[in-house]
Amino acid sequence: MKILVPIKQVPDTATQVKVGSDPRAIETAGITWIISPYDEFAVEEALRIKEKRGQGEVVTVSLGPDRVKEALRSSLAMGADRAIHVNDPAFAEADTLLTARALAAVFTQEAPQLAIFGRQAIDDDMGAVPAQVAELLGWPSLYWIMEAAIDADGKTIRAGRQVEGGLEVFEAPLPCVLTAQKGLNEPRYPTLKGIMGAKKKEIKDLKAGDLGLAPAPPQISVVRLEALPPRPPGRIIGGAVKDAVHELVRALREEAKAI
Amino acid sequence: MGNAFWCIVEDDRKGQPKRVMAEVLTEAGRLSGGQAEAVWLTDKAAPDGLERLAEWGASRIWLLESPALAPYRGEAWVPVAAALVSAQAPKAILGPVTSRQREFLARLAARLGVGFAADTVGLELDGDTLVATRPVYAGKLLSKVTWAKTPWVASLRPNVFKAGDPQPGRAPVVERPSFTVPDATLTLVERREEVSTGLPELTEADLVVSGGRGLKGPENFVILERLASVIGAAVGASRAAVDAGWRPHRFQIGQTGRTISPKLYLGFGISGAIQHLAGMRTSKVIVAVNKDPEAPIFKIADYGIVGDLFEVVPALTEEFKKLLGK
Q: What is the 3-state secondary structure (H, E, C) of B22-56?
Protein backbone atom coordinates (compact mmCIF):
# COMPACT_ATOMS: atom_id res chain seq x y z
CA MET A 1 0.00 0.00 0.00
CA LYS A 2 1.34 3.39 -0.99
CA ILE A 3 0.52 6.27 1.38
CA LEU A 4 1.17 9.88 0.42
CA VAL A 5 1.70 12.42 3.18
CA PRO A 6 1.77 16.06 2.09
CA ILE A 7 3.65 18.20 4.61
CA LYS A 8 4.28 21.91 5.00
CA GLN A 9 7.28 23.71 6.41
CA VAL A 10 6.21 26.51 8.76
CA PRO A 11 7.82 28.90 11.26
CA ASP A 12 8.25 27.41 14.73
CA THR A 13 5.40 28.58 16.97
CA ALA A 14 7.84 30.17 19.39
CA THR A 15 9.54 32.19 16.61
CA GLN A 16 8.91 35.92 16.47
CA VAL A 17 7.14 36.77 13.23
CA LYS A 18 7.09 40.27 11.78
CA VAL A 19 5.58 41.78 8.67
CA GLY A 20 8.26 41.86 5.96
CA SER A 21 9.35 44.69 3.64
CA ASP A 22 6.75 43.29 1.24
CA PRO A 23 3.74 43.69 3.58
CA ARG A 24 2.08 40.64 2.04
CA ALA A 25 4.67 38.32 3.56
CA ILE A 26 6.58 37.83 6.79
CA GLU A 27 10.21 38.73 7.35
CA THR A 28 11.93 35.35 6.91
CA ALA A 29 15.38 36.30 8.28
CA GLY A 30 16.03 34.58 11.60
CA ILE A 31 13.05 32.24 11.41
CA THR A 32 13.36 28.68 12.68
CA TRP A 33 11.48 26.34 10.34
CA ILE A 34 9.75 23.13 11.37
CA ILE A 35 7.36 20.56 9.93
CA SER A 36 3.86 21.76 10.82
CA PRO A 37 3.03 19.78 14.00
CA TYR A 38 -0.18 18.21 12.66
CA ASP A 39 1.77 16.91 9.65
CA GLU A 40 3.95 14.94 12.07
CA PHE A 41 0.83 13.13 13.27
CA ALA A 42 0.11 12.35 9.61
CA VAL A 43 3.63 11.01 8.94
CA GLU A 44 3.46 8.94 12.13
CA GLU A 45 0.09 7.43 11.22
CA ALA A 46 1.30 6.51 7.74
CA LEU A 47 4.38 4.82 9.22
CA ARG A 48 2.24 2.90 11.72
CA ILE A 49 -0.10 1.67 8.99
CA LYS A 50 2.87 0.49 6.93
CA GLU A 51 4.48 -1.21 9.93
CA LYS A 52 1.25 -2.93 10.92
CA ARG A 53 0.71 -4.26 7.40
CA GLY A 54 4.36 -5.29 7.13
CA GLN A 55 4.63 -3.77 3.68
CA GLY A 56 3.99 -0.59 1.78
CA GLU A 57 5.58 2.73 0.98
CA VAL A 58 5.29 6.13 2.68
CA VAL A 59 6.00 9.09 0.41
CA THR A 60 6.09 12.66 1.75
CA VAL A 61 5.54 15.60 -0.57
CA SER A 62 5.92 19.34 -0.09
CA LEU A 63 5.65 22.56 -2.07
CA GLY A 64 8.05 25.40 -1.45
CA PRO A 65 11.52 26.84 -1.95
CA ASP A 66 14.89 25.12 -1.34
CA ARG A 67 14.61 25.30 2.46
CA VAL A 68 11.67 22.86 2.32
CA LYS A 69 14.19 20.04 1.63
CA GLU A 70 15.06 20.20 5.31
CA ALA A 71 11.47 19.39 6.33
CA LEU A 72 11.31 16.57 3.80
CA ARG A 73 14.63 15.24 5.11
CA SER A 74 13.18 15.25 8.66
CA SER A 75 10.22 13.18 7.46
CA LEU A 76 12.64 10.72 5.86
CA ALA A 77 14.53 10.56 9.17
CA MET A 78 11.25 9.65 10.89
CA GLY A 79 10.98 6.73 8.47
CA ALA A 80 9.30 7.85 5.23
CA ASP A 81 10.71 5.93 2.25
CA ARG A 82 11.15 8.78 -0.21
CA ALA A 83 10.04 12.36 -0.80
CA ILE A 84 8.86 14.65 -3.57
CA HIS A 85 9.72 18.35 -3.63
CA VAL A 86 7.61 20.59 -5.85
CA ASN A 87 10.03 23.51 -6.10
CA ASP A 88 8.91 26.14 -8.59
CA PRO A 89 8.67 29.94 -8.22
CA ALA A 90 5.35 29.62 -10.07
CA PHE A 91 3.88 28.52 -6.71
CA ALA A 92 5.35 31.39 -4.67
CA GLU A 93 1.93 33.03 -4.24
CA ALA A 94 -0.13 29.86 -4.53
CA ASP A 95 -3.44 29.86 -2.67
CA THR A 96 -5.00 26.67 -1.32
CA LEU A 97 -6.61 25.83 -4.65
CA LEU A 98 -3.37 26.13 -6.69
CA THR A 99 -1.59 24.10 -4.02
CA ALA A 100 -4.36 21.51 -4.18
CA ARG A 101 -4.09 21.35 -7.98
CA ALA A 102 -0.34 20.75 -7.77
CA LEU A 103 -0.81 18.05 -5.13
CA ALA A 104 -3.65 16.45 -7.10
CA ALA A 105 -1.28 16.22 -10.09
CA VAL A 106 1.34 14.53 -7.87
CA PHE A 107 -1.37 12.15 -6.61
CA THR A 108 -2.33 11.28 -10.19
CA GLN A 109 1.31 10.46 -11.01
CA GLU A 110 1.90 8.48 -7.82
CA ALA A 111 -1.51 6.77 -7.55
CA PRO A 112 -1.45 6.21 -3.74
CA GLN A 113 -4.18 4.19 -1.97
CA LEU A 114 -4.34 6.65 0.90
CA ALA A 115 -3.36 10.24 1.67
CA ILE A 116 -2.94 11.58 5.19
CA PHE A 117 -2.59 15.33 5.79
CA GLY A 118 -2.24 17.30 9.01
CA ARG A 119 -5.47 18.97 10.09
CA GLN A 120 -4.08 22.37 9.10
CA ALA A 121 -0.74 24.10 8.69
CA ILE A 122 0.01 26.35 11.64
CA ASP A 123 1.17 29.30 9.53
CA ASP A 124 -1.99 30.29 7.63
CA ASP A 125 -4.34 27.93 9.53
CA MET A 126 -6.52 27.55 6.43
CA GLY A 127 -7.10 23.77 6.61
CA ALA A 128 -8.53 23.75 3.08
CA VAL A 129 -5.97 21.92 0.94
CA PRO A 130 -6.86 18.32 1.95
CA ALA A 131 -10.57 18.79 1.15
CA GLN A 132 -9.71 20.53 -2.10
CA VAL A 133 -7.33 17.78 -3.25
CA ALA A 134 -10.04 15.22 -2.45
CA GLU A 135 -12.63 17.23 -4.38
CA LEU A 136 -10.37 17.63 -7.43
CA LEU A 137 -9.70 13.87 -7.45
CA GLY A 138 -13.28 12.87 -6.60
CA TRP A 139 -12.12 11.05 -3.45
CA PRO A 140 -13.95 10.98 -0.12
CA SER A 141 -12.36 12.98 2.69
CA LEU A 142 -12.56 12.67 6.45
CA TYR A 143 -11.37 15.58 8.60
CA TRP A 144 -9.87 15.62 12.10
CA ILE A 145 -9.24 11.91 12.47
CA MET A 146 -8.69 10.61 16.02
CA GLU A 147 -8.39 6.93 15.05
CA ALA A 148 -7.89 4.96 11.84
CA ALA A 149 -7.76 1.28 10.85
CA ILE A 150 -7.45 -0.34 7.43
CA ASP A 151 -9.12 -3.67 6.73
CA ALA A 152 -6.98 -6.74 6.00
CA ASP A 153 -7.60 -6.57 2.24
CA GLY A 154 -6.48 -2.95 2.08
CA LYS A 155 -9.74 -1.97 0.40
CA THR A 156 -11.48 0.14 3.03
CA ILE A 157 -10.58 2.32 5.97
CA ARG A 158 -12.49 2.89 9.18
CA ALA A 159 -11.76 6.27 10.71
CA GLY A 160 -13.22 8.30 13.57
CA ARG A 161 -13.52 12.04 13.10
CA GLN A 162 -13.87 14.52 15.91
CA VAL A 163 -17.12 16.49 15.73
CA GLU A 164 -18.92 18.74 18.20
CA GLY A 165 -19.93 16.59 21.13
CA GLY A 166 -18.47 13.31 19.94
CA LEU A 167 -16.75 11.11 17.43
CA GLU A 168 -18.23 9.93 14.13
CA VAL A 169 -16.75 6.69 12.82
CA PHE A 170 -17.01 6.26 9.06
CA GLU A 171 -16.06 3.50 6.69
CA ALA A 172 -14.61 4.69 3.39
CA PRO A 173 -13.40 2.89 0.31
CA LEU A 174 -9.77 3.57 -0.64
CA PRO A 175 -8.36 5.79 -1.99
CA CYS A 176 -9.37 8.38 0.56
CA VAL A 177 -8.06 11.61 2.13
CA LEU A 178 -7.70 11.87 5.91
CA THR A 179 -6.58 14.77 8.07
CA ALA A 180 -4.85 14.08 11.37
CA GLN A 181 -6.03 15.68 14.60
CA LYS A 182 -3.90 15.82 17.74
CA GLY A 183 -4.55 12.69 19.79
CA LEU A 184 -4.35 10.35 16.79
CA ASN A 185 -0.91 9.18 17.88
CA GLU A 186 2.35 10.31 19.44
CA PRO A 187 4.88 11.11 16.68
CA ARG A 188 8.26 9.40 17.02
CA TYR A 189 11.55 11.23 17.22
CA PRO A 190 14.02 10.37 14.47
CA THR A 191 16.73 7.98 15.67
CA LEU A 192 20.39 8.58 14.85
CA LYS A 193 20.15 5.64 12.44
CA GLY A 194 17.09 7.23 10.86
CA ILE A 195 18.87 10.55 10.44
CA MET A 196 21.89 8.88 8.84
CA GLY A 197 19.68 6.76 6.60
CA ALA A 198 17.65 9.78 5.48
CA LYS A 199 20.70 11.21 3.73
CA LYS A 200 20.64 8.32 1.27
CA LYS A 201 16.91 8.45 0.53
CA GLU A 202 15.56 10.00 -2.63
CA ILE A 203 14.03 13.50 -2.79
CA LYS A 204 12.64 13.96 -6.27
CA ASP A 205 12.44 17.55 -7.58
CA LEU A 206 9.47 18.52 -9.68
CA LYS A 207 8.55 21.72 -11.55
CA ALA A 208 5.06 22.84 -12.52
CA GLY A 209 5.78 21.67 -16.06
CA ASP A 210 6.61 18.14 -14.85
CA LEU A 211 3.09 18.01 -13.42
CA GLY A 212 1.49 19.24 -16.63
CA LEU A 213 0.25 22.37 -14.88
CA ALA A 214 -0.26 25.55 -16.88
CA PRO A 215 0.30 28.83 -15.00
CA ALA A 216 -2.89 30.02 -13.31
CA PRO A 217 -3.69 33.00 -11.09
CA PRO A 218 -4.53 32.44 -7.42
CA GLN A 219 -8.19 32.81 -6.42
CA ILE A 220 -7.27 34.21 -3.01
CA SER A 221 -4.56 36.86 -2.65
CA VAL A 222 -3.06 38.38 0.45
CA VAL A 223 -3.58 42.16 0.36
CA ARG A 224 -1.35 42.74 3.38
CA LEU A 225 -0.35 41.39 6.76
CA GLU A 226 -0.89 43.54 9.83
CA ALA A 227 0.27 43.50 13.40
CA LEU A 228 -2.50 42.91 15.92
CA PRO A 229 -4.22 46.03 17.17
CA PRO A 230 -2.98 46.54 20.73
CA ARG A 231 -5.35 45.42 23.46
CA PRO A 232 -6.18 48.22 25.88
CA PRO A 233 -3.87 47.94 28.89
CA GLY A 234 -5.16 45.62 31.56
CA ARG A 235 -5.43 46.14 35.28
CA ILE A 236 -3.89 44.07 38.03
CA ILE A 237 -6.25 44.00 40.98
CA GLY A 238 -4.27 43.91 44.22
CA GLY A 239 -5.15 43.58 47.86
CA ALA A 240 -6.43 40.69 49.97
CA VAL A 241 -8.00 37.83 48.02
CA LYS A 242 -11.48 38.58 49.36
CA ASP A 243 -11.30 42.25 48.33
CA ALA A 244 -9.62 41.55 44.98
CA VAL A 245 -12.28 38.99 44.05
CA HIS A 246 -15.06 41.37 45.07
CA GLU A 247 -13.56 44.14 42.92
CA LEU A 248 -13.05 41.74 39.97
CA VAL A 249 -16.69 40.66 39.97
CA ARG A 250 -17.83 44.27 40.27
CA ALA A 251 -15.62 45.29 37.32
CA LEU A 252 -16.79 42.35 35.19
CA ARG A 253 -20.41 43.31 35.79
CA GLU A 254 -20.22 47.12 35.73
CA GLU A 255 -17.24 48.02 33.50
CA ALA A 256 -16.82 45.10 31.14
CA LYS A 257 -20.49 44.02 31.20
CA ALA A 258 -19.20 40.52 30.69
CA ILE A 259 -21.48 38.75 33.17
CA MET B 1 -24.99 37.34 -11.15
CA GLY B 2 -27.18 37.72 -8.11
CA ASN B 3 -26.38 39.81 -5.10
CA ALA B 4 -27.43 37.35 -2.46
CA PHE B 5 -25.11 36.33 0.35
CA TRP B 6 -25.75 32.70 1.18
CA CYS B 7 -25.41 31.34 4.68
CA ILE B 8 -24.92 27.59 4.95
CA VAL B 9 -26.99 26.48 7.93
CA GLU B 10 -25.34 24.65 10.79
CA ASP B 11 -27.97 22.73 12.75
CA ASP B 12 -28.16 20.60 15.86
CA ARG B 13 -28.88 17.49 13.71
CA LYS B 14 -32.38 17.49 15.21
CA GLY B 15 -33.99 20.10 12.96
CA GLN B 16 -32.98 23.35 14.65
CA PRO B 17 -30.40 25.83 13.34
CA LYS B 18 -27.63 26.65 15.77
CA ARG B 19 -27.53 30.05 17.40
CA VAL B 20 -24.29 30.92 15.57
CA MET B 21 -26.43 31.30 12.43
CA ALA B 22 -27.77 34.57 13.85
CA GLU B 23 -24.20 35.91 13.63
CA VAL B 24 -23.65 34.67 10.07
CA LEU B 25 -27.05 35.90 8.83
CA THR B 26 -26.59 39.32 10.46
CA GLU B 27 -23.17 39.75 8.84
CA ALA B 28 -24.45 38.55 5.46
CA GLY B 29 -27.41 40.95 5.71
CA ARG B 30 -25.12 43.87 6.58
CA LEU B 31 -22.82 43.21 3.59
CA SER B 32 -25.59 42.52 1.07
CA GLY B 33 -28.07 45.20 2.06
CA GLY B 34 -30.59 42.72 3.40
CA GLN B 35 -30.12 39.88 0.93
CA ALA B 36 -28.97 37.24 3.40
CA GLU B 37 -30.30 33.87 2.26
CA ALA B 38 -30.09 30.67 4.28
CA VAL B 39 -29.19 27.43 2.50
CA TRP B 40 -30.10 24.43 4.61
CA LEU B 41 -28.94 20.95 3.68
CA THR B 42 -30.55 18.55 6.14
CA ASP B 43 -32.56 15.39 6.61
CA LYS B 44 -35.05 17.24 8.79
CA ALA B 45 -35.93 20.92 9.20
CA ALA B 46 -38.37 21.75 12.00
CA PRO B 47 -40.99 24.39 11.05
CA ASP B 48 -39.99 26.58 13.99
CA GLY B 49 -36.37 26.15 12.88
CA LEU B 50 -37.32 27.84 9.59
CA GLU B 51 -39.03 30.61 11.58
CA ARG B 52 -35.90 31.19 13.61
CA LEU B 53 -33.80 31.61 10.45
CA ALA B 54 -36.26 34.22 9.19
CA GLU B 55 -36.23 36.02 12.54
CA TRP B 56 -32.42 36.06 12.46
CA GLY B 57 -32.48 37.82 9.09
CA ALA B 58 -32.85 35.23 6.29
CA SER B 59 -34.78 36.96 3.50
CA ARG B 60 -35.18 33.59 1.82
CA ILE B 61 -34.47 29.99 2.81
CA TRP B 62 -33.30 27.41 0.30
CA LEU B 63 -34.37 24.16 1.90
CA LEU B 64 -32.62 21.06 0.59
CA GLU B 65 -34.22 18.31 2.65
CA SER B 66 -33.43 14.63 2.11
CA PRO B 67 -32.57 11.63 4.29
CA ALA B 68 -29.52 11.16 2.00
CA LEU B 69 -28.00 14.43 3.31
CA ALA B 70 -27.50 13.07 6.85
CA PRO B 71 -25.00 12.48 8.23
CA TYR B 72 -22.87 15.16 6.54
CA ARG B 73 -20.69 13.76 3.79
CA GLY B 74 -18.85 16.12 1.44
CA GLU B 75 -19.44 13.85 -1.54
CA ALA B 76 -23.21 14.19 -1.06
CA TRP B 77 -23.44 17.84 -0.08
CA VAL B 78 -21.03 19.43 -2.54
CA PRO B 79 -22.74 18.42 -5.83
CA VAL B 80 -26.17 19.41 -4.43
CA ALA B 81 -24.94 22.82 -3.31
CA ALA B 82 -22.87 23.37 -6.48
CA ALA B 83 -25.93 22.74 -8.67
CA LEU B 84 -27.89 25.37 -6.76
CA VAL B 85 -24.96 27.80 -7.06
CA SER B 86 -25.00 27.35 -10.86
CA ALA B 87 -28.71 28.06 -10.98
CA GLN B 88 -28.80 31.01 -8.55
CA ALA B 89 -25.31 32.58 -8.82
CA PRO B 90 -24.99 33.97 -5.29
CA LYS B 91 -22.39 36.62 -4.66
CA ALA B 92 -21.01 35.01 -1.53
CA ILE B 93 -21.26 31.73 0.38
CA LEU B 94 -20.65 31.98 4.12
CA GLY B 95 -20.82 29.53 6.99
CA PRO B 96 -19.70 29.26 10.61
CA VAL B 97 -16.49 27.39 11.43
CA THR B 98 -17.76 23.96 12.49
CA SER B 99 -16.47 20.42 12.11
CA ARG B 100 -18.36 19.80 8.89
CA GLN B 101 -18.27 23.25 7.31
CA ARG B 102 -14.50 23.57 7.48
CA GLU B 103 -14.39 20.64 5.05
CA PHE B 104 -17.57 21.37 3.10
CA LEU B 105 -16.81 25.00 2.20
CA ALA B 106 -13.26 24.12 1.09
CA ARG B 107 -14.55 21.30 -1.12
CA LEU B 108 -17.34 23.47 -2.53
CA ALA B 109 -14.87 26.27 -3.42
CA ALA B 110 -12.66 23.72 -5.22
CA ARG B 111 -15.67 22.40 -7.14
CA LEU B 112 -16.60 25.97 -8.15
CA GLY B 113 -12.98 26.97 -8.88
CA VAL B 114 -13.17 29.98 -6.55
CA GLY B 115 -11.27 31.19 -3.49
CA PHE B 116 -11.99 30.19 0.09
CA ALA B 117 -10.98 32.07 3.23
CA ALA B 118 -11.25 30.02 6.43
CA ASP B 119 -11.82 31.23 9.97
CA THR B 120 -12.35 34.91 9.17
CA VAL B 121 -12.82 37.45 11.98
CA GLY B 122 -13.75 40.43 9.79
CA LEU B 123 -15.38 41.02 6.40
CA GLU B 124 -15.58 44.36 4.56
CA LEU B 125 -16.59 45.36 1.06
CA ASP B 126 -13.96 47.34 -0.82
CA GLY B 127 -15.50 48.59 -4.03
CA ASP B 128 -16.41 45.49 -6.02
CA THR B 129 -14.47 43.08 -3.86
CA LEU B 130 -14.68 41.56 -0.43
CA VAL B 131 -11.73 41.77 1.95
CA ALA B 132 -11.52 39.25 4.78
CA THR B 133 -9.41 39.50 7.91
CA ARG B 134 -7.94 36.25 9.26
CA PRO B 135 -5.62 35.57 12.19
CA VAL B 136 -2.41 33.84 11.01
CA TYR B 137 0.86 32.65 12.59
CA ALA B 138 -0.75 31.58 15.86
CA GLY B 139 -2.76 34.79 15.94
CA LYS B 140 0.42 36.88 16.02
CA LEU B 141 -0.56 38.67 12.78
CA LEU B 142 -3.72 39.44 10.85
CA SER B 143 -3.91 38.68 7.15
CA LYS B 144 -6.19 40.66 4.81
CA VAL B 145 -7.18 38.57 1.82
CA THR B 146 -9.34 39.14 -1.22
CA TRP B 147 -10.96 37.07 -3.96
CA ALA B 148 -10.31 36.98 -7.73
CA LYS B 149 -13.96 36.31 -8.51
CA THR B 150 -17.35 35.49 -7.03
CA PRO B 151 -18.86 33.67 -5.31
CA TRP B 152 -16.73 34.61 -2.34
CA VAL B 153 -16.56 31.58 -0.03
CA ALA B 154 -15.64 32.12 3.61
CA SER B 155 -16.09 30.61 7.06
CA LEU B 156 -16.71 32.89 10.04
CA ARG B 157 -15.25 32.32 13.49
CA PRO B 158 -18.11 31.87 15.99
CA ASN B 159 -18.70 34.53 18.69
CA VAL B 160 -16.78 37.21 16.74
CA PHE B 161 -19.44 38.65 14.42
CA LYS B 162 -22.28 40.46 16.14
CA ALA B 163 -25.74 38.94 15.94
CA GLY B 164 -28.48 41.52 15.38
CA ASP B 165 -31.73 41.67 17.31
CA PRO B 166 -34.14 38.99 16.07
CA GLN B 167 -37.29 40.12 14.30
CA PRO B 168 -40.03 38.07 15.99
CA GLY B 169 -42.92 36.97 13.82
CA ARG B 170 -41.10 37.50 10.53
CA ALA B 171 -42.50 34.80 8.21
CA PRO B 172 -39.99 32.56 6.46
CA VAL B 173 -39.88 32.56 2.67
CA VAL B 174 -39.01 28.97 1.84
CA GLU B 175 -37.88 27.64 -1.55
CA ARG B 176 -37.74 23.90 -2.05
CA PRO B 177 -35.84 23.36 -5.31
CA SER B 178 -35.75 19.83 -6.68
CA PHE B 179 -32.38 18.13 -6.49
CA THR B 180 -30.74 14.72 -6.55
CA VAL B 181 -28.19 13.50 -4.04
CA PRO B 182 -25.38 11.42 -5.53
CA ASP B 183 -24.53 8.18 -3.76
CA ALA B 184 -21.88 8.69 -1.13
CA THR B 185 -19.15 6.12 -0.64
CA LEU B 186 -18.73 7.00 3.04
CA THR B 187 -20.84 5.01 5.51
CA LEU B 188 -21.43 6.08 9.10
CA VAL B 189 -20.60 3.13 11.32
CA GLU B 190 -21.21 4.64 14.73
CA ARG B 191 -21.45 7.92 16.55
CA ARG B 192 -19.89 8.01 20.00
CA GLU B 193 -21.30 10.77 22.16
CA GLU B 194 -18.97 12.38 24.64
CA VAL B 195 -19.93 11.95 28.25
CA SER B 196 -21.93 15.09 28.91
CA THR B 197 -20.32 17.41 31.41
CA GLY B 198 -23.58 19.27 31.85
CA LEU B 199 -21.65 22.40 30.86
CA PRO B 200 -21.75 24.20 27.48
CA GLU B 201 -19.65 23.06 24.51
CA LEU B 202 -16.27 24.81 24.52
CA THR B 203 -16.41 26.45 21.09
CA GLU B 204 -20.00 27.60 21.54
CA ALA B 205 -19.81 28.93 25.09
CA ASP B 206 -20.15 32.62 25.97
CA LEU B 207 -18.13 32.09 29.12
CA VAL B 208 -15.06 29.87 29.44
CA VAL B 209 -13.09 28.90 32.55
CA SER B 210 -9.71 27.38 31.79
CA GLY B 211 -7.01 25.70 33.85
CA GLY B 212 -3.32 25.03 33.35
CA ARG B 213 -0.32 23.54 35.04
CA GLY B 214 -1.04 25.66 38.11
CA LEU B 215 -3.95 23.31 38.93
CA LYS B 216 -1.27 20.79 39.99
CA GLY B 217 -3.34 17.71 39.17
CA PRO B 218 -6.48 16.39 37.47
CA GLU B 219 -8.41 16.16 40.75
CA ASN B 220 -8.26 19.90 41.20
CA PHE B 221 -10.24 20.69 38.07
CA VAL B 222 -13.31 20.13 40.22
CA ILE B 223 -12.93 23.64 41.68
CA LEU B 224 -13.05 25.08 38.15
CA GLU B 225 -16.10 22.95 37.36
CA ARG B 226 -17.85 24.33 40.43
CA LEU B 227 -17.09 27.88 39.34
CA ALA B 228 -18.18 27.07 35.79
CA SER B 229 -21.50 25.60 36.88
CA VAL B 230 -22.31 28.75 38.89
CA ILE B 231 -21.85 31.06 35.89
CA GLY B 232 -22.80 28.57 33.13
CA ALA B 233 -19.33 28.40 31.59
CA ALA B 234 -17.51 25.71 29.64
CA VAL B 235 -14.27 24.35 31.11
CA GLY B 236 -11.11 24.25 29.00
CA ALA B 237 -7.47 23.48 29.61
CA SER B 238 -4.01 24.47 28.46
CA ARG B 239 -1.76 22.16 26.48
CA ALA B 240 0.36 21.57 29.58
CA ALA B 241 -2.69 20.24 31.46
CA VAL B 242 -3.78 18.10 28.49
CA ASP B 243 -0.31 16.72 27.78
CA ALA B 244 -0.03 15.79 31.46
CA GLY B 245 -3.17 13.70 30.97
CA TRP B 246 -5.31 15.78 33.34
CA ARG B 247 -8.00 16.53 30.73
CA PRO B 248 -8.95 14.86 27.42
CA HIS B 249 -7.65 16.55 24.31
CA ARG B 250 -11.07 17.85 23.27
CA PHE B 251 -10.85 20.37 26.12
CA GLN B 252 -7.55 21.84 24.93
CA ILE B 253 -7.58 25.53 24.02
CA GLY B 254 -4.80 26.67 21.73
CA GLN B 255 -3.05 26.19 18.48
CA THR B 256 -3.23 22.40 18.59
CA GLY B 257 -6.65 22.44 20.22
CA ARG B 258 -9.82 24.48 19.99
CA THR B 259 -10.04 28.13 19.02
CA ILE B 260 -12.51 30.06 21.14
CA SER B 261 -13.84 33.64 21.26
CA PRO B 262 -16.05 33.81 24.33
CA LYS B 263 -17.43 37.02 25.86
CA LEU B 264 -15.44 36.21 28.97
CA TYR B 265 -12.37 34.00 29.37
CA LEU B 266 -11.06 33.24 32.85
CA GLY B 267 -7.63 31.55 32.94
CA PHE B 268 -6.28 29.99 36.14
CA GLY B 269 -2.72 28.79 36.56
CA ILE B 270 -2.05 29.34 32.86
CA SER B 271 1.19 31.08 31.94
CA GLY B 272 0.03 32.15 28.48
CA ALA B 273 2.38 30.43 26.02
CA ILE B 274 2.02 31.66 22.44
CA GLN B 275 0.33 28.46 21.37
CA HIS B 276 -2.34 28.92 24.08
CA LEU B 277 -2.91 32.58 23.20
CA ALA B 278 -3.48 31.49 19.59
CA GLY B 279 -6.62 29.73 20.73
CA MET B 280 -8.20 32.44 22.93
CA ARG B 281 -6.72 35.79 21.91
CA THR B 282 -9.97 36.97 20.29
CA SER B 283 -11.91 36.57 23.57
CA LYS B 284 -13.74 39.80 24.40
CA VAL B 285 -12.73 40.06 28.06
CA ILE B 286 -9.76 38.15 29.47
CA VAL B 287 -9.18 37.52 33.17
CA ALA B 288 -5.98 35.88 34.38
CA VAL B 289 -5.12 34.49 37.79
CA ASN B 290 -1.54 33.34 38.28
CA LYS B 291 1.01 33.23 41.07
CA ASP B 292 3.74 34.53 38.78
CA PRO B 293 3.41 38.28 38.14
CA GLU B 294 5.65 37.86 35.07
CA ALA B 295 3.33 35.30 33.40
CA PRO B 296 2.84 36.40 29.75
CA ILE B 297 -0.93 35.99 30.00
CA PHE B 298 -1.07 39.21 32.07
CA LYS B 299 0.11 41.11 28.97
CA ILE B 300 -3.17 40.42 27.18
CA ALA B 301 -5.46 40.20 30.23
CA ASP B 302 -8.01 42.93 30.88
CA TYR B 303 -8.08 42.03 34.56
CA GLY B 304 -5.48 40.13 36.51
CA ILE B 305 -5.04 38.84 40.03
CA VAL B 306 -1.57 37.80 41.12
CA GLY B 307 -2.27 35.10 43.65
CA ASP B 308 -2.87 31.50 44.58
CA LEU B 309 -5.69 30.07 42.46
CA PHE B 310 -6.61 27.66 45.26
CA GLU B 311 -7.63 30.70 47.33
CA VAL B 312 -8.96 32.82 44.47
CA VAL B 313 -11.22 30.27 42.75
CA PRO B 314 -13.38 29.35 45.78
CA ALA B 315 -13.66 33.03 46.78
CA LEU B 316 -14.60 33.96 43.22
CA THR B 317 -17.19 31.18 43.09
CA GLU B 318 -18.83 32.55 46.26
CA GLU B 319 -18.75 36.11 44.92
CA PHE B 320 -20.42 35.05 41.64
CA LYS B 321 -23.05 33.12 43.65
CA LYS B 322 -23.87 36.30 45.55
CA LEU B 323 -24.01 38.36 42.35
CA LEU B 324 -26.26 35.90 40.54
CA GLY B 325 -28.41 35.17 43.59
CA LYS B 326 -27.56 31.47 43.66
A: HHHHHHHHHHHCCCEEEEEEECCCCHHHHHHHHHC
pLDDT confidence bin for B238, thresholds 50/70/90: very high
Which domain CATH number covers A121? Answer: 3.40.50.620
Architecture of domain B5-175: 3-Layer(aba) Sandwich (3.40)
ipTM field: 0.95
Q: What is the CATH number of domain B202-324?
A: 3.40.50.1220
Strand order across the A166-173 sheet: A203-206, A82-86, A57-63, A2-6, A114-118, A176-180, A141-150, A156-163, A166-173, B187-193
Q: Residue A234 and residue B298: Cβ atoms within 8 Å?
A: yes
Q: For residue B184, give the amino acid letter.
A: A
Residue in A103, A181, A220 to test binding to B, most B beta-carbons within 10 Å: A220
Q: Do A241 and B110 touch (CB under 8 A)?
A: no
Could you give the CA distance from residue A92 to residue A95 in angstroms, rounded to a whole number?
9
Closest approach of A210 to chain B, Cα-based (Å):
22
**Residues A31 and A110 grouped into a single domain:** yes
- Predicted TM-score (pTM) of the model is 0.94
